[in-house]
From TrEMBL:
Name of the protein: Rod shape-determining protein MreD
Entry's localization field: Cell inner membrane; Cell membrane
Protein's job: Involved in formation of the rod shape of the cell. May also contribute to regulation of formation of penicillin-binding proteins.
Organism for this UniProt entry: Solimonas marina
One GO process term, biological-process aspect: regulation of cell shape
Lineage, broadest ranks: Bacteria, Pseudomonadati, Pseudomonadota, Gammaproteobacteria, Nevskiales
Length: 165
């Protein structure tokens, strides 16, 4: 198959980040809110793995600042978490892409946990209290959603004339 045009890749990239931001902001019932997957980290990790030529650190930083403003969290909290997460995924890309999807999912769990730890650490430093187990629930739900997100994004890319690696 032919590679998609750079404009198509950029359009898909920006549109998917916008969708992830909207999904991150959708209000859920309290019972489900604690287990909300980390949509922006999921989408940024997907693009960091799938399209290594795309710049992902700057969009991760900017999306993190947007989350900081939208959640009224300490300025830079989500930006720090997203940049660290994306940096790890980019540096370990060659490690993740050699595995089948289920093994890559397991290999990414420490990255999701690190993101949750950074959010926990900054909240602790700024004295924002939350129950400990609620801090780690998003890492679990994100790991569970990773294969679904990867499969859906690959299906969308293949229908739009994307390539197979």
């Amino acid at each position: 198959m032919s590679r998609p045009s750079p404009q198509a890749v950029w359009a898909g990239y920006l549109l998917s980040l916008l969708c992830a931001l909207v999904l991150q902001l959708v209000e859920l019932p309290d019972a489900l809110s604690a287990a909300r997957p980390l949509w922006l980290p999921l989408m940024l990790a997907y693009w960091a793995l799938r399209e290594p030529q795309l710049p992902v650190l700057i969009p991760a930083f900017l999306c993190g600042l947007m989350l900081d403003v939208l959640y009224a969290s300490p300025f830079g909290q989500h930006a720090l978490g997203l940049v660290v997460l994306v940096y790890i995924v980019v540096r370990l890309r060659s490690f993740f892409i050699i595995f089948p999807l289920w093994q890559a999912t397991i290999a990414l769990v420490p990255a999701w946990a690190l993101y949750c730890f950074l959010m926990f650490w900054v909240d602790g430093a700024t004295q924002h209290e939350a129950e400990i187990w609620l801090r780690w629930l998003p890492a679990l739900s994100t790991a569970l959603f990773w294969p679904l997100l990867w499969s859906v994004m690959e299906l969308i890319r293949s229908r739009r004339g994307g390539d197979e690696d």
